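Posted in: Protein Modeling Q&A

I'm a second-year student putting together a small comparison for a lab meeting, and my supervisor asked me to include a predicted structure for Glutathione peroxidase. I've never done this before, so apologies if this is the wrong subforum. The sequence is pasted below exactly as I got it from our records. If anyone can share the structure token output, I'd also love a short note on what stands out.
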Amino acid sequence: DIKGNDVSLATYRGKVLLIVNVASM
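Accepted answer (user: helix_wrangler)
Welcome! Here is the predicted structure, written out as tokens:
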């Protein structure tokens, strides 16, 4: 399902950005 993939991708990107954000601090 395209929608499912989009949600998974968005969640994955969000987690990566969050990890990078914490690592930067």
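A couple of things worth pointing out for your meeting: The helical segments are 2-24. The chain has one helix and no strands.
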